[in-house]
Design brief:
Layout lengths: L1 H38 L7 H22 L8 H5 L2 H36 L10 H5 L1 H14 L2 H4 L13
Helix pairs in contact: 1-2, 2-6, 4-6
Amino acid sequence: MRKVCGKIDRALTVFETAFLATALFAMAGVLFAQVAGSALGKAPAWAGELAMYLMTWTMCVGAGAAARSGRHIAITVVADKLKGRAGAVARAAVRLLCVAFCAGLCAVGADFAMMSRELGQKSVAVGAPLWIVYMAMPVSAAMMAFRFAMPASAVGAAPLKGTLEDAP
């Protein structure tokens, strides 16, 4: 199980890193084209919309990367004050709450995206199917749920400050 989780974690890390670098580079290029076009009196109508969609995906994939490195929001006020086994149990409970929240967000986001797909919604300027933009939420929620669910030893880092494995 740990080998499989480790491989999934490495694949997600490669995807996140490559996607974030590519999306940020593309966003900078699109916004440059918009500014240059504005200066010349011919700004592309699609540039602002495309940059917004790239930003949406960048924020969502970035949230998954933050969960990987332990920088994502987690409610650990009580868990951090507890020592030993009680603290480890509290941190495990926080992990479970984070997984449950992310799973719910994934389900709701997928429903919303599929509803948009069924309705055939498209963006105004780009003409792209909006369900692709809306899939950012369930995809990132699934990535975060995976990261919160895995024990630190399986992926090499703890999304929260400790686990039951850390308890004496």
